[in-house]
Amino acid sequence: MFKNKLILKGLASMLLMTSIISCEQTLTSPLEKEALAKIEILESLMQDAKSKSIDVSREETLLWFSKEFIKFANWDEANMAQVEKAFGYDGHYKKDAAKHAAELPDYERTKVNEILDNGIKQLQSVLDGSIKRRPAPKIDWGNIEVTDKALLNNGKPIFLHDYFSKTVGQPLTNSAVYNDYLGNMYHGGENLYEEHQDRAINPWLLNEDGTFDQDRLKLLTDIPDTNIGFLYLWNSGLPEWLHKKDSTVAQGRSLFMGLDIDNPNVRAHWGKIAKKAGALTNGKKVTQLGFVLANEPHWFAEKGYWTQRYGEMNSISDHTKNKFRTWLSKKYHGNISALNKNWESAFKDFNAVEITIPIDTKYRGKPIWYDWCRFAMFRSLDWFTHIQNELRTNAPEAPTSIKMQPRYFAENYRSHGLDFETLTELTSIIGDDAKAQSSRTFGRKNPEPWEEHYAYSWEEVAFSYDFMESVAPNKIHFNSETHFLSLSRWKDLNTPVDYVRSVFWLATLHGMDASTSWFWARDPDGSPEDRLEGDLDFWDPGLGGAYAGSANMQPQMANEIAQVFLDMNSLSEAIIALRDERKPLRIFYSETSAINKKTHMTELFDLYESLYFEGIPLGYATEKIITKQDNASWDAILVYKTPYVTDKEFSALQNYLIEGGTVITDAESLLKNEYGANRKAILTKGKGNLITLEKGISLKAIATKSLNEVKESRSDLILTESNGTSQKGCTWRVTKNAKGGYIVNILNIGKNEAKLNLKLKKDTIQSVTNMMTGEELGTTFVIKKSGVLMLEIE
């Protein structure tokens, strides 16, 4: 069925293009004629540049997107009913679907003209010597080296970008889709037109008789062994025969994990598949960025959470209950009286323990809540450990990641079953699915908190990435589904290109090495991929309306993503040097307080935000980080509003002090254990430096005192900012270069442009040069809203 659809679609595309070509003189719009004329101008300038040995990779990219979107605009104009239907699938755009569909073709042409104008202007400046750009390295997609610290392209760091769920149905070798402009990472994981026919590693690979489905395996093994890539383990469901064998296999399922991770039949089934997948793909380039062990896993078990509408954790199986009882028995050392005292219960023994799931949020802060949340994290770790071990049976070096959503670290909810620290430790690659947005969420009447001070919502990326990078400083970082361009409830048909540039730069500066954006759905002729044509015949709460307002309709957005990666890759060694700067001040993170408190992460972010704009890279310390990593990697640990800690967490801080470390703590932290019992012990300084802050001290004063404790590790460079508000908006980092000067990166994420001044504590600045343009700025200059600067200071 699918192949027939593809053939018919190809014939239709050929007829459409023939029709367009034959009627070109009558159908070409004025905006298209204008764009075609500008393309000729740009191509002429490029020939001039090439004759002078000037790199034109940026212009080649711009030309490709311009020509593609001229084609796309013509398709949209010729198929307005289909485009209107696409807008109609989105909750925000559907009310004006016909209007949006009618306006889209000329909108796309207008934006093509805008990016061509900018491209012509820039190349003219290069040719007349006004600016000097660094050449962008050509990516050798088939020879990327994966190291602990970075991806290397011809021996130099490289940052890779592609698209998630990329025009499903097109072969990986189709150069109109897999190329230097849209990205050229080979990957499996997208569902094709018919259910479950995909290149992912999924439960339908294994038949009831224990044999493997050879046709589905072929979709996996036919991936050419030529390009760097990754593979998904798709856990959204189970074959019908397994449901008939055991009706409980999906009890305790979640939104994208449609199975019971504690069920022995499920574990055996997936174990066999993981082993087979490892054997078939061992050492292939398509696994260089790893096996993504799950797509957005979570198991929210609290009453009233939105995922319950989709059947998530509406109940738990006997397998889960028994595993919980065993876990509790170990946690309480077999003492049922201790559990009964904590839970205010009267269970005869651990085999009699019962819990109601979903659990009522009124129990938050009580021992039963803590025990369940901690167990939920244990059970997910147990599942991923099992799958990873099975996978590595036949592929011992198989790289792995888990696509976790960082918002579940940054938000206050903690019934999701995700211990970000242990799961980041488990896999060989840091995995995530971060989001950001440049305007307000659809349907929200009141401003979102970030709107008061900032150009876009940056907090999830920086706040969570710094944590994961602190846990695993020597692992590459792969965001296998960036949601910087659109979300289910946020898209902007006129997304600012400055935002696009800034947010990708921000994520890369905080550790991201490779990413795939949600999503690319245009087939080469301009039509949307098969899943999005006609009447939608699949279930996905996010995919249906994802096409409307996406990058597929915004030439300025798609081009800017490619352009920012060209620029970052031309400066990759400097960016890596900035990323590798020592993080002298560490914020103490306790999962114990995060579970027990209602607003712990909000308060922790307030602390993080107060330090974020001071030119110092931030890191975290946990019990494990303190005990496992070299304590010389930082100068001080700051403990803030963290009343609940386990004895192990407390001991880690105490031992750090005994060995000579510095701990700064407020008056309300470290007072209770995980069950809320008062702690008799208090920290003593040992050989170290214990600074106890006075009660009621302001956040600003805490930041000042903390920065003073690490002043010897701070740069000699001082940046001052004036942006018309009392809140700083420029985050900046500094590293020394080989010339004895400095490399400085500045991102203005504030809501206004900012006037900046640079000076040194002791020396005099001789020059400040924009490394992307070669322009001299002086020590005082302006950075625009969402502006990005990489400076060299002599």
UniProtKB/TrEMBL annotation:
This protein's species is: Seonamhaeicola marinus
Protein known as = Glycoside hydrolase family 42
> Coiled coil located at which positions?
none
Alphabetically sorted, this entry's keywords are:
Hydrolase
The answer to keyword Repeat applying to this record is: no
An MF annotation (GO) of this entry = hydrolase activity
Query: Which superkingdom?
Result: Bacteria
